Amino acid sequence: MRERVKVVAIGGGTGLSVLLRGLKKYPLDITAIVTVADDGGSSGKIRSDMNIPSPGDIRNVIAALSDTEPYLERMFQYRFDSGEIKGHPVGNLMIAAMTDIHGDFTTAVKVMSKILNVRGTVLPTTNEIATLNAVLKTGEIIRGESSITSAGGQIDHVYITPTKVKPNEDVLKAIENSDYIVMGPGSLYTSIIPNLVVSKVAEKIKESKAKKIYVCNVMTQHGETDNYTVSDHIKAINKHVNANIFDIVIANSRKFDEKVLSIYKEVKQEMVVVDRAEIEKLDIRIIENDNVGIVENDVIRHNTEEVSELIYNYIIDDKPTIIYNKK
C-alpha cells in the first residue's frame, strides 16, 4: 500500500481550523502545527494561572480535525457564561487538566486528539510558554500577542521571547518528512508567523524539499496588514524565514458587493489586492478563484470546501503517482 501524501499545515486562530475542516475530507496524512503564543482571553488566563502554553488555538484545531459525535465536539467547544469559569471553553479546561495529569503539554494534546478521534496529528510548535513581540516600523516594541493588533501600528517584524524557547521535536520531524507545507489563511503576524520564529522551525522549512503553498487572506486586518497586497503577505513571511519559499499562492478573485465592503471599511478592513506582477517577480504560481472567498450574513470568509479542493487538485497534478482517489 502506498503511503499517503504528507501535508503539514501551519497556523493558528480560526484560519487554520477553517482550512483543516476541508482538508480532512481528503485522503491525506495531515499534521497541524499550531501556535501557542496567545496571551488573551481564556487561553491567557489558563497560561498565566497554570504556567502552560496557551490551549485555545490547539483546541480549535482539534475540534476541526475531530471525527466524533457532533454533541461531543459541541461540548468540547462550549464556553461557560457564568460563575468562576465564565469565558472558559470546556476544551481549554480539558487540555489544561490533561497537562496537569501527564505533566507535559504535547502529551496532553495527543491524549485529547485520541479522545476526539482526530484525523491527523496536532502539534504545538513548542512545549514551553512563549511570548510574541512585535517591532513596529517606528521602532516601538509591543509585547504580547493580544496587544499587537490593538496597537494599530505598522509591523516590521515579530519575535518570540525567551529566545531559548525550544521547538517541539515532532514539529521539526513533521516538516522534514512533509511532501507539502501549507500556510494560511489567518492572521499573518499573530497566527502564522509566530510558528516560524520559534527556533529551528524556519530553518527546517527552508531545508525541506516540500512544495510550499500559501492561502492568502481575503481581507486585510487592521493593526496587522493594513493596505497589504497578496505579495506583501508573502514578503512578510519570506522576511521571517529569510528565503523566498512559496511555490504557489491561492488568492480570491471575487469582487464583493459594496454594501458588504462598506461594513468592513468601518473597521478599517479592505479586500486584499492580487498584485500579479509583484507575485510573478517572486516566481510564484498564482491560483485565483472567485469562490475562495464567500459571504454569509454580511461576513466574508474563506470557502473551506473550495480552498481544500484547490489544494488537493494541485497535489494530484503535482504528484499523481502516490495520491489516492478522493473518498
Task: Write a concise synopsis of the structure shown.
Helix 1 (13-23) packs parallel to helix 3 (56-65), helix 1 crosses helix 14 (304-318) and helix 8 packs parallel to helix 10.
Describe this structure in words.
This protein is an alpha/beta fold. The chain is 42% helix and 18% strand. It has a seven-stranded parallel β-sheet, sandwiched between helices. It has a three-stranded antiparallel β-sheet with strand order 5-4-6. Helix 5 crosses helix 6 (105-115) and helix 8 packs parallel to helix 10 (201-207). The longest helix has 15 residues, at 304-318. The two termini are 16 Å apart. The model has no long low-confidence stretch (mean pLDDT 93).
Can you lay out the helices and strands and say which pair or pack?
Elements lengths: L5 E6 L1 H11 L5 E6 L6 H10 L5 H10 L4 H8 L12 H13 L2 H11 L5 E4 L6 E6 L4 E3 L1 H7 L3 E7 L7 H9 L2 E4 L4 H9 L4 H7 L3 E5 L14 H12 L6 E5 L5 H9 L9 H6 L3 E5 L3 E4 L2 E4 L1 H15 L9
Parallel strand pairs: 1-2, 1-7, 2-3, 7-8, 8-9, 9-10
Antiparallel strand pairs: 4-5, 4-6, 11-12
Helix pairs in contact: 1-3, 1-14, 5-6, 8-10, 9-11
